[in-house]
Amino acid sequence: MQGYQFHTRSLDDIPADRRRGGEVRTLLSPKTVGSTSGFMGVAKIRVGEKISEHYHPYSEEFIYVVSGTIDAQLEGKSCPLSAGDGLYIPINTRHRLVNIAEQEAFIVFHLGPLAPRPDMGHVDTE
Fold first, then answer.
1. pTM over 0.85
2. How many domains does the chain fold into?
3. Please, how many CA atoms are within 13 Å of residue 82, restricted to the half-sphere of its CB?
């Protein structure tokens, strides 16, 4: 496979971002691996914790629940998800992720396409 460059990142090498709740780590992104179509990461959401409501004006979001149970609140409507469930969130959809179980939740997320600039990709609503 000449000409291809492969990049890996370890969860242990990425500092946690707790600004919006949860413990979010963006593993693969334009900044970390030079991706051009989107980015991927993981989040841990502790018992009783949430990732605050927000939306993405340029990107779709895909979520996969690895462990635990969360309530994905989309435009104010509840969508419970458990381990093994996936969720597609369309562009401009307000959403928050709430841990509704008695154990930590762990999710994988991917967003794409990228916003024109990183500061344009995420809009907080609370």
1. yes
2. 1
3. 2
